[in-house]
Amino acid sequence: MTTTAHRQAEEHQHTHGPDCGHESVIHEDHVDYLHDGHVHHEHDGHYDECTTCECADCSDVCAVCDCSNCTCATCNHNVCECGSCNDACANCACSECTCSTCKHAA
Fold first, then answer.
1. In the chain, what are the domain boundaries?
2. Is the separation of the CB atoms in 40 and 79 below 8 Å?
3. What pLDDT does residue 17 have?
4. Which of 30, 62, 87, 92 has its CA 20 to 30 A from that of 100?
């Protein structure tokens, strides 16, 4: 079993949702909210900060990263390169995926 490290965000005075007034971005299996200069999502009763892009030349969060040569597996904009689909790597579910940036690829 693999455990993903997460950084808990500050306490919030409201619950994020469709009508909370903060911009939202679908990122992998959750919705991130852009809030006061950072990006976070609900997790087990609290909010976690979004993951940061792992590219050497980037310091943006994965939900909004727009690196032109991104190789980070959790950034939203990477598109599967396996030839069987054209989905974003964060959402790709190809059974025999060979893309280097898809999380589930062998």
1. 1-106
2. no
3. 75
4. 30
SS3 of 10, please? coil
List the structure tokens of 69: 């040569």
Residues in the chain: 106
* Structure token pair of residue 16: 């994020």
The pLDDT, as a whole number, for residue 45 is 77
Total-model pTM: 0.61
Q: For 23-41, what is each residue's pLDDT tens digit? A: 888 787 778 888 777 788 8
SS3 of residue 88 by DSSP = strand
Contact 37, 49 (CB under 8 A): no
β-strand pairing of 24-27 with 38-43: unpaired
Residue 24 DSSP label: E
CA-CA distance, 94 to 96, in Å (whole number)? 6
